[in-house]
Amino acid sequence: VRYVRQLQLESEEVLLISVADKLHNCRAILDDYRELGESLWGRFNAGRAEVLWYYQELALTFTERLPGRLADELRRTVDSLRAEVALNVPTSDDEVDQVREQLRIA
Is 105 a residue whose pLDDT tops 90? Predict the structure, then answer.
């Protein structure tokens, strides 16, 4: 939550580096999910819903703060990850929405 909030204050240069890093990370998560399935989430300190929420919030933040190709690609990658998870875990969208409510960013 803190990192997503901090992005609201960062310069365009910092945002550009961050979105490129997060896009790379999200692509790696998507590739690993395709290979490992649900066992992937054991690698994270947070659960599946929290990780999905985090990347969704990042995508929304970058779309608002740094619109363009990288933010769009991050959003598409997050959408693909959520769609693939939903094939295996139909309630994943509900779980992410619950996390969003619990961690609502003001």
Answer: no
Q: Is the full-model pTM beyond 0.90?
A: no
Q: How far is CA 104 from the centre of its chain?
A: 15
pLDDT tens profile 22-46: 999 999 999 999 999 999 999 999 9
CB 51 within 8 A of CB 41: yes
Return the amino acid letter for 12.
Answer: E
Beta-carbon contacts of residue 42 (< 8 Å; ≥ 6 apart): none
Neighbours of 25 (CB within 10 A): 14
The radius of gyration computed from the CA coordinates of the chain, to the nearest angstrom, equals 13
DSSP state, 9? T
Question: Which DSSP string do the residues of 77-94 spell out, in sequence order?
Answer: HHHHHHHHHHHH-TTHHH
Report which DSSP code applies to 66.
S
